[in-house]
Amino acid sequence: MAELGFMGIAVPEEYGGAGMDNVCYAIAMEEISRACASTGVIMSVNNSLACDPILKFGSEEIKREYLVPMASGKKLGCFGLTEPGAGSDAGSQKTTAVRDGDFYVVNGTKNFITNAPQADTCVLFTMTDKAKSHKGITAFVVDMKWKGVSLGKHEKKMGIKASATSSIVFEDVRVPAKNRLGNEGDGFKVALSTLDGDGSASPPRRSGSPAPRSRTLSPIRRTGSSSDRRSAISRRSSGCWRTSPPRSTPRDCSHGEPPG
Ligand SMILES: Cc1cc2nc3c(=O)[nH]c(=O)nc-3n(C[C@H](O)[C@H](O)[C@H](O)COP(=O)(O)OP(=O)(O)OC[C@H]3O[C@@H](n4cnc5c(N)ncnc54)[C@H](O)[C@@H]3O)c2cc1C
Predict the structure, then answer these.
(1) Phi, psi dihedral angles at 183 (to 5 degrees)
(2) Range of the domain at 38
(3) Average pLDDT over every residue of 22-41
(4) Does some domain include residue 142?
(5) 125 CA to middle of ligand 1, Å?
(6) What is the 37 CA–ligand 1 centroid distance (Å)?
(7) Which of 38, 79, 81, 82 most suits a substitution to test ligand 1, by most atoms within 8 Å of the C-beta?
(8) Element (H, E) at 35
(9) Domain count of the chain?
(10) Is the pTM of this model over 0.90?
(11) Model confidence band, residue 222 (pLDDT cutoffs 50, 70, 90)
(12) Residues contacting residue 23 through CB under 8 Å, at least 6 positions apart
């Protein structure tokens, strides 16, 4: 998938992505989800929830350091907004980031985080000013290997099981101030913009998933340039996508069978 440019479809090529647009992203998402819903979720979180906010709100230095490896599929991202007591109401979250010189010290727990067990990087939402509710939220890019970051409860889901979901615990994690996305208090804007963008992936992800197995995704071979990948996706959008015959037995990736 990384070779095909599927981990950063709408990210410009200069930042390691495929340099395509959201229509191409939606088409690819539908086809991948048709073959395996879990793979579609892993891919969409990396594309929409991890790469996109860094592309929109990260400094040039942060884009080079974190976006390039994620968009090129060398590293995997996750998005940490939800907490045990804060789902729809992000303004009631309790994870704090307290400024200490050139760093912020982060403490708190995030819940239901897709890709967390495998992720290298987390787009994390914290409170820098609790009194301001959602206007006191600030977003950061956090390396999952930093001291004080650990995984919590692994969720046993009813479906889409090959996509791992767990909580993440942050204990006195020192996050460089340069890893902030936007200014202090911009976090709610970052979250809403990111979730709006993810909306372009959700319908194709869902419409792809339950489709009859009348056709499956054939690999688009990368022959070197991104224009090859672009033309492969535009062949699909003009109805010329290569198809393969129905399988006799439907696959269930939820139990770990790799897509292909
Ligand atoms: C499989 C899975 C993966 C997830 N992955 C991620 C992830 O990667 N990153 C992340 O940050 N989060 C993730 N989440 C969390 C998800 O975003 C939250 O579950 C969601 O925001 C809802 O929060 P909640 O579960 O606390 O429900 P609540 O906020 O408690 O809502 C429960 C119900 O009440 C309704 N409701 C809430 N407030 C109101 C209101 N004011 N008026 C009317 N109705 C209301 C809601 O619509 C919902 O139906 C994931 C969740 C699941 C199940």
Answers:
(1) -95, 170
(2) 13-72+201-255
(3) 95
(4) yes
(5) 15
(6) 20
(7) 82
(8) helix 22-35
(9) 2
(10) no
(11) very low
(12) 237
Report whether 39 contacts 26 (CB < 8 A). no
What number does the ligand 1 atom closest to the CA of 45 have? Answer: 8
Which stretches within 131-225 are classed as H helix? Answer: 187-198, 202-208
- The arithmetic mean of pLDDT across residues 64-93, rounded, is 96
User: Higher model confidence: residue 79 or residue 226?
Assistant: 79
**What are residue 103's DSSP bridge partners?**
100, 176
Question: What tokens appear for 152 in the block?
Answer: 């919590």
- The residue whose CA has the least distance to atom 36 of ligand 1 is 88
3-state helix, strand, coil in the chain (%, to 5): 35, 25, 40
Which residue ranges have their beta carbon within 6 Å of ligand 1? Answer: 45, 78-82, 87-88, 112-114, 157, 165
Residues 124 and 208 in one domain: no
CA of 96 to the centre of ligand 1 (A): 20
Which residues 6+ apart lie within 8 Å of 158 measured at CB? none
> What is the CATH classification number for the domain harbouring 169?
2.40.110.10
Buried b (16+ CB within 10 A) or exposed e, 184-216: bebbbbbbebbbebbebbeebbeebbeeeeebb
Retrieve residue 36's tokens: 């395996």
Tokens read off for 42: 């892993």
Contact 190, 182 (CB under 8 A): yes
One domain for residues 33 and 119:
no
pLDDT in the model for residue 196: 86
Nearest CA to ligand 1 atom 37: 88
Which amino acid makes up residue 21?
Answer: D
Residues in CB range of 180: below 8 A, 6 or more apart: 104, 138, 139, 140
